């Protein structure tokens, strides 16, 4: 699956393709994702950044095998050919997919890539047979929450007990 989109007035174009969850590109984007969300949490709650050793332990301990076929997919967004973001989709049951680890590098936000990446994730969820998609996030990730609302996601009851989850959303596909 490849989705391509050029924003009016831009030089580059967006593409979204499937990517192995354990590729070097995925690892680079995972690191950027974890660094940002961890630093934001620690700054908000403890007034300091993430301890680099802790970050490395968490990255090393995280395995995203559920974002691989046959019941999952990792998508990588590229802008002008450069990898700049990710979104994962995994089936929770035969009708429900979960959106995981949606991320765009900070320098790429506001260029339309978030909506393009989410649209590609929704298409991937449909291709896995899902009729609905759910996600969780934190309250402090206000940009993400605003984007989900703009894209038709509605707040819902919790579908998991993830330690850092504070808000849950769903959308019928």
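^ Assign residues to that structure.
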């Amino acid at each position: 699956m490849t989705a391509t989109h050029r924003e009016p007035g831009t030089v580059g174009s967006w593409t979204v393709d499937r990517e192995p969850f354990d590729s070097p590109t995925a690892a680079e984007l995972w690191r950027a994702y974890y660094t940002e969300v961890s630093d934001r949490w620690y700054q908000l709650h403890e007034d300091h950044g993430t301890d680099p050793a802790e970050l490395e332990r968490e990255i090393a301990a995280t395995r995203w095998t559920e974002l691989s076929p046959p019941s999952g997919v990792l998508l990588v967004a590229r802008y002008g050919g450069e990898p700049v973001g990710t979104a994962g989709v995994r089936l929770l049951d035969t009708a429900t997919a979960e959106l995981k680890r949606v991320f765009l590098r900070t320098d790429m936000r506001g260029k339309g890539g978030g909506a393009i990446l989410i649209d590609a994730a929704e298409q991937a969820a449909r291709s896995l047979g899902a009729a609905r998609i759910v996600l969780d996030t934190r309250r402090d990730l206000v940009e993400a929450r605003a984007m989900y609302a703009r894209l038709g996601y509605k707040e819902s009851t919790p579908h998991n007990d993830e330690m850092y989850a504070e808000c849950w959303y769903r959308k019928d596909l």
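The chain has one domain: 2-132.
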